[in-house]
């Protein structure tokens, strides 16, 4: 049985869970407690001292970094494919995956981290820079998504696994302006997709812990 370490409210956890749900892979969910005694954190750090999640263990081997986990799952259970076999198509999917992680998810995390540090350690410049960067990438994505559908022309892929949680939470941090209709519509399609809707529902009880205050939507 594949072992999965993550937390239901964590964006990168969702990204890997979406792939597991898409492929119908059974797993044992070891949810990381955020309060003492921090159940499962010791096991997680034994595998990856950095302590970031998600992380899976399969046949005794740990795999971490969400994109690598999905690459592994795609190899383990090839259908439905989340990374196309064709080189050019795969490159496009991996590019969009990097864009969502580096330019949406990580920017969003910077704002959340600033809120978690507390008012006395608030750095307004971090928020300004993160919001400006999100605005820039929203504009780029809106043009990229003008054709509708998923992130790439290759069906639901790794890129959409990254897009779901990153756009879900980024919109909470810096709302996608109405003028980016293509991006807003894409986010709505993602949230209606069963594997992502499941993550949204399972995370609902944790919304009061969102450090910026969860908006009354989604
Ligand atoms: N690049 C990593 C990022 C993982 C990540 O940032 N995970 C967050 C949860 S969403 C985490 O582990 N936070 C706790 C920490 O950084 O100590 C990936 O793709 O898996």
Which small-molecule ligands are present, each listed once? glutathione
Largest sheet, strands/sense/barrel: 4 strands, mixed
Principal-axis shape equals globular
| Percent helix | 55-70%
Q: Mean pLDDT, nearest integer?
A: 98
Tell me the CATH topology of the largest domain. Answer: Glutathione S-transferase Yfyf (Class Pi), Chain A, domain 2
Q: Sketch the topology as an H/E string, one letter per element.
A: EHEHEEHHHHHH
CATH top level class name of the largest domain: Mainly Alpha
- Strand tally: 4
Alpha carbon gyration radius: 17 Å
Q: How are the strands of the largest sheet arranged?
A: 2-1-3-4
As residue ranges, the low-confidence spans are none
Number of domains: 2
β-strand amount = 5-15%
Distance between the termini: 33 Å
Q: What's the gist of this structure?
A:
With 218 residues, this protein is an alpha+beta fold. 55% of the residues lie in helices and 8% in strands.
């Amino acid at each position: 049985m594949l072992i999965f370490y993550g937390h239901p409210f964590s964006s990168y956890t969702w990204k890997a869970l979406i792939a597991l749900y898409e492929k119908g892979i059974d797993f044992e969910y070891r949810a990381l407690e955020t309060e003492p005694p921090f159940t499962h954190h010791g096991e997680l750090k034994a595998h990856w001292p950095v302590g970031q999640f998600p992380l899976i263990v399969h046949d005794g081997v740990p795999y971490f970094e969400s994109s690598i986990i999905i690459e592994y799952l795609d190899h383990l259970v090839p259908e439905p494919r989340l990374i196309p076999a064709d080189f050019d198509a795969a490159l496009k999917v991996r590019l969009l995956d990097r864009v969502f992680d580096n330019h949406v998810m990580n920017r969003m995390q910077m704002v959340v981290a600033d809120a978690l540090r507390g008012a006395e350690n608030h750095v307004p410049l971090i928020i300004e820079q993160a919001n400006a960067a999100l605005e820039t990438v929203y504009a780029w994505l809106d043009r990229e998504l003008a054709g509708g559908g998923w992130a790439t022309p290759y069906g639901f892929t790794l890129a959409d696994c990254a897009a779901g949680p990153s756009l879900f939470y980024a919109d909470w941090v810096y709302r996608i302006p109405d003028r980016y209709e293509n991006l807003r519509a894409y986010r709505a399609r993602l949230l209606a997709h069963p594997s992502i809707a499941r993550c949204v529902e399972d995370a609902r009880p944790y919304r009061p812990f969102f450090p910026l205050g969860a908006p009354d939507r989604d």
